[in-house]
Each structure stands twice: as C-alpha cells, then as structure tokens.
Amino acid sequence: MPTRREREYYAAGYRDGIDAARRDIGRDFGYPSGEWRSISGEPHGNIGGTAGSFARGGGRRGTRRRKTRRSKPRALSKWQKFVKTNSKKKEFRFRNGKVNLKKLGVAYRKKHGKRKR
User: Fold this and answer.
1) 29-41 per-position pLDDT tens digit
2) Which terminus of the chain is more solvent-facing, meaning fewer CB atoms within 10 Å of its CB: N or C?
3) Does the predicted TM-score (pTM) go above 0.70?
C-alpha cells in the first residue's frame, strides 16, 4: 500500500496533469467533481470520487486501518536470540565497538548447523 507521501505526490502529479490539459485543451477537461459527461454534455454522476479523495485514501476502496497489536510480541527466532546473547561478547566485536556479523554468522552456523533428522 502506498505511503502517505506517495499518495500526496500522486495527487499533486494528477492535479498538475489536469491543469496542463485544461491549458492545452480547454476549461471543460477533467471535471474536478469526478463527473464525466456524454457527447451531448449531460453529466452521468460521480464515478468513484475525485483525485483528492483518492489521494487521501478515500474513493471506492475506502480507508482501511490496521488493528493495533496489543497481544504479546512474536517470539524471537533462533538467530535473533543468538545475536542478542552473543553480540556483547568481545569475541564478536570490532575494535571500534561495532558488531562483527560475519563472525557471528559463522559461529551460528557452527552451532546450529544442519542437523540430521
């Protein structure tokens, strides 16, 4: 799903395109209310919202919000537990204090390598 900023950029680009078309073609191009007209010029109603409503997340799809997660957090994977317990050890640190993930990965594969079933 696009981010809020992406929706804003899309709406701005859409508005710029409509404005440019109105300059080139005429003022009747691209009705801002979302209406479209037949050849005779009669309106046929709203076809799902305006560009602004789509940019705000409205329109035909409606707004969907994720439910906030209040249950317990997911359990850590074996790799995450290994990194959490061993990243503080001097053996897996560079001199400047950063974690040596390459060395951690080698140690992890040694400990948790392929096990025969």
Assistant:
1) 655 555 555 455 5
2) C
3) no
